[in-house]
Amino acid sequence: MTAPFTIGFLGAGQATQAIHLPALAAMPDLWRVGAVMDVNAETARIVADRCGARGVTDAMAVIEDPAIDVVAINSPHVFHAEQLIAAAHAGKRAALVEKPLAVNREQAEQVAAIAAGTGMKILVGTMHWYDPGFRAGLAAWEAAGATATRIRSAIFVPPNAQFVGAATEEAFPSPPPPAPPAEQPPEFQRERLRQTILGLAVHHIPLVRRFLREPGIVVEARRHPPFGYSLLIRAGDQVAELLAVMPGQWPPSWTFEASGPDRRLHVDFGPSYIAGASGRALLSDANGDRGFAFGENGYAAQWRHLHDALTNDTPLDMPVEQAIEDLAYALDLADAAADVMEIVA
Ligand SMILES: NC(=O)c1ccc[n+]([C@@H]2O[C@H](COP(=O)([O-])OP(=O)(O)OC[C@H]3O[C@@H](n4cnc5c(N)ncnc54)[C@H](O)[C@@H]3O)[C@@H](O)[C@H]2O)c1
């Protein structure tokens, strides 16, 4: 048996408390938490105490600690790239960085430069890519040589706080987002749409890109305030629809679907934050339906995959170059959508 690797968390808010720590708690042979950093000292202390780690407020105290093998970057988006780059310079063995990998092209280039010259394994937390149900459905789809003409990602989620409340007793709950201003000039509306795409649509960019043969063009974009979008991408004979509506008081639903003339793959992912089973994938064709589901979800699967790659010194399933291309695609998509979006008077 290999000794567990030691993780240092950067950022100890909802994603750390309600997603990653519960996933890791189920794999004590693989991982231990050595440090929890947050700029809020109380949050760092309370969350660190819960997992027997030390709590700190200085990211470099974690990044430069030789006892920390892997950093988990769960800070606000804008800090991801700089913390990842610092971790690579410090010689960390791996980083699990939450989505998005970076927030603009300049940061993306800096990450690409460091990624090319480092041995650090970088896994971006687009968890549905690692979901065992999705992976099995995808493998069956590709084994059949199927081609999709229509791709659809649809997200209907209640406010995060509702899930987080069900998953954990949050230390220092994040304040609710500020109410949007009454006046929303066009540039505000465009920027909101960009942020929503980088924050939420980005989850399914790796999945969508796997099915699209070419990048395509955004032919329609709409914002669904306060935090939603619908996008229509046309790419040759393929169309991709990306839809998200949140927050709302409806049952959560997060689905991905690819369909062609003779086959359909439909995946129903479980709600984020609730530790549970994989997505349920259903492949339907002339031979009937085949279902795929497993006991572990994408959050757990990504930590297990990272552990395997470190233990066996094997490459990650998603090379960092692909994650950087996905980010570039998301940035282009966000700009193109902001250009064509309908501005609400
Ligand atoms: N994969 C998923 O399903 C999922 C779900 C939620 C959030 N996320 C991602 O996780 C990240 C964190 O989101 P969250 O929901 O936990 O947000 P949050 O606001 O609940 O927590 C962020 C924490 O970071 C701390 N912080 C602020 N500046 C920091 C810095 N410079 N360094 C370290 N920590 C700092 C804040 O004090 C706060 O405690 C985001 O990138 C988000 O996109 C992913």
The fraction of residues assigned to DSSP E strands is 15-25%
Summarize the main sheet: 8 strands, mixed
Mean pLDDT: 94
For the record, the CATH class of the largest domain is Alpha Beta
Structural class: alpha/beta
Give the overall shape: globular
Helix content: 25-40%
Strand order of the largest sheet: 8-9-10-7-11-12-13-14
- Uncertain segments are none
The distinct bound ligands, ions and cofactors come out as: nicotinamide-adenine-dinucleotide
Structure commentary:
The chain is built from eleven helices and 14 strands. The protein has 345 residues and is α/β, with parallel strands linked by helices. α4 (80-89) runs parallel beside α5 (105-116) and α8 (186-199) packs antiparallel against α11. The chain is globular and about 55 Å long. It starts with a strand and ends in a 5-residue tail after the last helix. It binds nicotinamide-adenine-dinucleotide. The site of nicotinamide-adenine-dinucleotide (NAD) has 26 residues, from α1.
Quick overview:
Helices cover 37% and strands 24% of the residues. The chain is an alpha/beta fold and 345 residues long.
Topology:
Blueprint: E1 5-10, H1 14-25, E2 31-37, H2 41-50, E3 54-56, H3 59-63, E4 70-73, H4 80-89, E5 94-97, H5 105-116, E6 121-124, H6 132-143, E7 150-156, H7 160-167, H8 186-199, H9 205-211, E8 217-223, E9 229-235, E10 238-245, E11 253-260, E12 263-269, E13 280-285, E14 288-292, H10 298-312, H11 320-340
Parallel strand pairs: 1-2, 1-4, 2-3, 4-5, 5-6, 7-10
Antiparallel strand pairs: 7-11, 8-9, 9-10, 11-12, 12-13, 13-14
Helix pairs in contact: 4-5, 5-11, 8-11
Residues 10-16, 19, 37-40, 43, 59, 74-77, 79, 98-99, 125, 127, 174, 199, 272 line the site of nicotinamide-adenine-dinucleotide.
